[in-house]
Amino acid sequence: MDRALSIWFLLLWLAGDSCNLIGSFLADQLPLQKYTAIYYVIADLVMLTMYTYYKMKSRSLLSASSVSAVTVSPDHLLNYWFEESRSLFCGNVASAPLFLQPFTTKEIIGFCIGSLSSVLYLFSRLPQIYTNFKRKSTAGVSYFLFALVILGNTTYGLSVLLKNPDLGQGESSYLIHHLPWLIGSLGTLTLDLIISVQFMIYRNAQPRVELNHDETAPLIGS
Protein backbone atom coordinates (compact mmCIF):
# COMPACT_ATOMS: atom_id res chain seq x y z
CA MET A 1 0.00 0.00 0.00
CA ASP A 2 2.79 2.45 0.89
CA ARG A 3 4.39 2.00 -2.56
CA ALA A 4 1.18 1.85 -4.60
CA LEU A 5 -0.40 5.02 -3.21
CA SER A 6 1.16 8.47 -3.44
CA ILE A 7 1.48 10.23 -0.08
CA TRP A 8 0.71 13.53 -1.83
CA PHE A 9 -2.52 12.06 -3.14
CA LEU A 10 -3.61 11.23 0.42
CA LEU A 11 -2.42 14.52 1.92
CA LEU A 12 -4.03 16.69 -0.77
CA TRP A 13 -7.19 14.64 -0.47
CA LEU A 14 -7.27 15.21 3.30
CA ALA A 15 -6.57 18.92 2.82
CA GLY A 16 -9.36 19.20 0.29
CA ASP A 17 -11.82 17.34 2.50
CA SER A 18 -10.86 19.47 5.50
CA CYS A 19 -11.44 22.69 3.57
CA ASN A 20 -14.65 21.21 2.23
CA LEU A 21 -15.81 20.50 5.79
CA ILE A 22 -15.01 24.00 7.05
CA GLY A 23 -16.40 25.73 3.99
CA SER A 24 -19.67 23.76 3.97
CA PHE A 25 -20.45 24.92 7.50
CA LEU A 26 -19.38 28.53 6.98
CA ALA A 27 -21.23 28.85 3.67
CA ASP A 28 -24.33 27.12 5.10
CA GLN A 29 -24.46 24.32 2.53
CA LEU A 30 -27.01 21.52 2.38
CA PRO A 31 -27.16 19.09 5.34
CA LEU A 32 -26.17 16.23 3.03
CA GLN A 33 -23.01 18.12 2.06
CA LYS A 34 -22.10 18.67 5.72
CA TYR A 35 -22.61 15.03 6.72
CA THR A 36 -20.69 13.82 3.67
CA ALA A 37 -17.80 16.19 4.45
CA ILE A 38 -17.51 14.82 8.00
CA TYR A 39 -17.43 11.25 6.68
CA TYR A 40 -14.77 12.10 4.09
CA VAL A 41 -12.41 13.55 6.70
CA ILE A 42 -12.80 10.49 8.94
CA ALA A 43 -12.17 8.15 5.99
CA ASP A 44 -9.06 10.13 4.98
CA LEU A 45 -7.63 9.90 8.49
CA VAL A 46 -8.18 6.13 8.49
CA MET A 47 -6.38 5.79 5.14
CA LEU A 48 -3.47 7.95 6.33
CA THR A 49 -3.18 5.86 9.47
CA MET A 50 -3.03 2.68 7.39
CA TYR A 51 -0.46 4.25 5.05
CA THR A 52 1.74 5.28 7.97
CA TYR A 53 1.46 1.83 9.54
CA TYR A 54 2.49 -0.01 6.37
CA LYS A 55 5.23 2.54 5.69
CA MET A 56 6.74 1.91 9.11
CA LYS A 57 6.33 -1.84 8.68
CA SER A 58 8.01 -1.75 5.26
CA ARG A 59 10.93 0.28 6.58
CA SER A 60 11.42 -2.05 9.53
CA LEU A 61 11.46 -5.10 7.22
CA LEU A 62 14.02 -3.46 4.95
CA SER A 63 16.27 -2.55 7.86
CA ALA A 64 16.05 -6.09 9.21
CA SER A 65 16.86 -7.77 5.89
CA SER A 66 19.81 -5.57 4.90
CA VAL A 67 22.98 -4.91 6.90
CA SER A 68 23.53 -1.54 5.29
CA ALA A 69 19.94 -0.37 5.59
CA VAL A 70 19.38 2.83 7.48
CA THR A 71 16.98 2.57 10.42
CA VAL A 72 14.11 5.07 10.35
CA SER A 73 12.35 5.58 13.65
CA PRO A 74 8.55 5.88 13.79
CA ASP A 75 8.88 9.31 15.37
CA HIS A 76 10.88 10.57 12.40
CA LEU A 77 8.29 9.23 9.96
CA LEU A 78 5.39 10.78 11.86
CA ASN A 79 7.22 14.11 12.11
CA TYR A 80 7.81 14.05 8.36
CA TRP A 81 4.12 13.33 7.75
CA PHE A 82 3.15 16.19 10.09
CA GLU A 83 5.46 18.68 8.40
CA GLU A 84 4.22 17.72 4.92
CA SER A 85 0.60 17.98 6.05
CA ARG A 86 1.16 21.35 7.72
CA SER A 87 2.78 22.79 4.60
CA LEU A 88 -0.32 22.03 2.57
CA PHE A 89 -2.46 24.24 4.75
CA CYS A 90 -0.08 27.23 4.66
CA GLY A 91 -1.08 29.78 2.09
CA ASN A 92 -3.00 32.96 1.57
CA VAL A 93 -6.67 32.81 0.64
CA ALA A 94 -7.52 35.16 -2.19
CA SER A 95 -10.10 37.85 -1.60
CA ALA A 96 -13.63 37.19 -2.77
CA PRO A 97 -14.61 38.36 -6.28
CA LEU A 98 -16.97 41.26 -6.77
CA PHE A 99 -20.01 39.09 -7.49
CA LEU A 100 -19.76 37.61 -3.98
CA GLN A 101 -20.31 40.96 -2.29
CA PRO A 102 -24.04 40.34 -1.66
CA PHE A 103 -23.04 37.34 0.45
CA THR A 104 -22.39 37.72 4.15
CA THR A 105 -18.84 37.78 5.47
CA LYS A 106 -19.26 34.26 6.85
CA GLU A 107 -20.47 32.99 3.46
CA ILE A 108 -17.58 34.67 1.64
CA ILE A 109 -15.05 32.97 3.95
CA GLY A 110 -16.81 29.64 3.42
CA PHE A 111 -16.85 30.19 -0.35
CA CYS A 112 -13.11 30.91 -0.42
CA ILE A 113 -12.32 27.83 1.68
CA GLY A 114 -14.61 25.76 -0.54
CA SER A 115 -12.78 27.07 -3.61
CA LEU A 116 -9.45 26.06 -2.05
CA SER A 117 -10.97 22.66 -1.36
CA SER A 118 -11.94 22.17 -5.00
CA VAL A 119 -8.40 23.10 -6.14
CA LEU A 120 -6.89 20.59 -3.72
CA TYR A 121 -9.30 17.94 -4.95
CA LEU A 122 -8.21 18.51 -8.53
CA PHE A 123 -4.48 18.50 -7.73
CA SER A 124 -4.76 15.47 -5.43
CA ARG A 125 -5.21 13.14 -8.39
CA LEU A 126 -2.06 14.25 -10.20
CA PRO A 127 0.48 12.58 -7.82
CA GLN A 128 -1.42 9.27 -8.04
CA ILE A 129 -1.59 9.48 -11.83
CA TYR A 130 2.16 10.09 -11.92
CA THR A 131 2.84 7.24 -9.46
CA ASN A 132 0.85 4.81 -11.61
CA PHE A 133 2.65 6.00 -14.74
CA LYS A 134 6.08 5.75 -13.11
CA ARG A 135 5.42 2.21 -11.80
CA LYS A 136 3.66 1.16 -15.02
CA SER A 137 1.27 -0.67 -12.75
CA THR A 138 -1.77 -0.17 -10.53
CA ALA A 139 -1.02 -3.20 -8.35
CA GLY A 140 -1.69 -2.45 -4.70
CA VAL A 141 -4.33 0.18 -5.49
CA SER A 142 -7.97 -0.79 -5.14
CA TYR A 143 -10.08 0.23 -8.11
CA PHE A 144 -13.19 0.05 -5.94
CA LEU A 145 -11.84 3.12 -4.12
CA PHE A 146 -11.92 5.20 -7.29
CA ALA A 147 -15.10 3.55 -8.58
CA LEU A 148 -16.92 4.54 -5.40
CA VAL A 149 -15.38 8.02 -5.55
CA ILE A 150 -16.66 8.43 -9.12
CA LEU A 151 -20.10 7.22 -8.11
CA GLY A 152 -20.13 9.39 -4.99
CA ASN A 153 -18.97 12.55 -6.78
CA THR A 154 -21.52 12.02 -9.56
CA THR A 155 -24.46 11.56 -7.22
CA TYR A 156 -23.15 14.34 -4.95
CA GLY A 157 -22.98 16.83 -7.80
CA LEU A 158 -26.35 15.79 -9.23
CA SER A 159 -28.01 16.12 -5.82
CA VAL A 160 -26.82 19.73 -5.62
CA LEU A 161 -27.85 20.52 -9.21
CA LEU A 162 -31.31 18.93 -8.95
CA LYS A 163 -32.29 20.72 -5.73
CA ASN A 164 -34.64 23.65 -6.21
CA PRO A 165 -33.27 27.02 -5.05
CA ASP A 166 -34.66 28.54 -1.89
CA LEU A 167 -37.65 30.85 -2.10
CA GLY A 168 -36.54 34.19 -3.51
CA GLN A 169 -33.17 32.85 -4.70
CA GLY A 170 -32.49 32.75 -8.43
CA GLU A 171 -30.93 29.77 -10.20
CA SER A 172 -27.77 31.71 -11.10
CA SER A 173 -27.31 32.82 -7.48
CA TYR A 174 -27.85 29.24 -6.32
CA LEU A 175 -25.22 27.89 -8.74
CA ILE A 176 -22.70 30.56 -7.70
CA HIS A 177 -23.31 29.76 -4.05
CA HIS A 178 -22.55 26.06 -4.63
CA LEU A 179 -19.97 26.46 -7.42
CA PRO A 180 -16.84 25.34 -5.49
CA TRP A 181 -18.54 22.14 -4.37
CA LEU A 182 -19.77 21.41 -7.89
CA ILE A 183 -16.25 21.84 -9.28
CA GLY A 184 -14.78 19.71 -6.49
CA SER A 185 -17.19 16.86 -7.20
CA LEU A 186 -17.93 16.94 -10.93
CA GLY A 187 -14.59 18.49 -11.92
CA THR A 188 -12.56 15.59 -10.53
CA LEU A 189 -14.46 13.05 -12.63
CA THR A 190 -12.15 13.64 -15.60
CA LEU A 191 -9.03 12.86 -13.55
CA ASP A 192 -10.70 9.87 -11.93
CA LEU A 193 -11.54 8.56 -15.41
CA ILE A 194 -7.86 8.93 -16.36
CA ILE A 195 -6.96 6.74 -13.37
CA SER A 196 -9.63 4.28 -14.53
CA VAL A 197 -7.94 4.14 -17.95
CA GLN A 198 -4.63 3.44 -16.20
CA PHE A 199 -6.25 0.49 -14.46
CA MET A 200 -7.26 -0.88 -17.88
CA ILE A 201 -3.84 -0.29 -19.45
CA TYR A 202 -1.74 -1.63 -16.56
CA ARG A 203 -4.08 -4.40 -15.38
CA ASN A 204 -1.66 -7.19 -16.39
CA ALA A 205 1.60 -5.29 -15.88
CA GLN A 206 4.07 -6.03 -13.11
CA PRO A 207 5.09 -3.04 -10.95
CA ARG A 208 8.58 -1.66 -11.39
CA VAL A 209 10.53 -1.98 -8.15
CA GLU A 210 13.31 0.56 -7.68
CA LEU A 211 16.01 -0.78 -5.38
CA ASN A 212 18.17 1.50 -3.31
CA HIS A 213 21.76 1.31 -4.51
CA ASP A 214 23.10 1.54 -0.95
CA GLU A 215 21.05 -1.47 0.11
CA THR A 216 22.09 -3.68 -2.84
CA ALA A 217 25.75 -2.75 -3.21
CA PRO A 218 28.24 -5.29 -1.82
CA LEU A 219 30.04 -4.35 1.38
CA ILE A 220 33.41 -5.26 -0.15
CA GLY A 221 34.01 -4.21 -3.73
CA SER A 222 35.45 -6.75 -6.16
UniProtKB/TrEMBL annotation:
Protein name: Lysosomal amino acid transporter 1 homolog
Alphabetical list of PANTHER family matching this protein: LYSOSOMAL AMINO ACID TRANSPORTER 1 HOMOLOG (PTHR16201:SF36), SEVEN TRANSMEMBRANE PROTEIN 1-RELATED (PTHR16201)
Record function comment: Amino acid transporter that specifically mediates the pH-dependent export of the cationic amino acids arginine, histidine and lysine from lysosomes.
Subcellular location: Lysosome membrane
Methyltransferase recorded as keyword: no
Record's keyword terms, sorted: Amino-acid transport, Glycoprotein, Lysosome, Membrane, Repeat, Signal, Transmembrane, Transmembrane helix, Transport
Keyword Signal: yes
An example Gene Ontology CC term for this record: lysosomal membrane
Lipid bilayer topology: Multi-pass membrane protein
InterPro entries per UniProt: LAAT-1, PQ-loop_rpt
Annotated TM spans: 37-54, 138-159, 179-202
Top-level taxon of origin: Eukaryota
Signal peptide range: 1-18
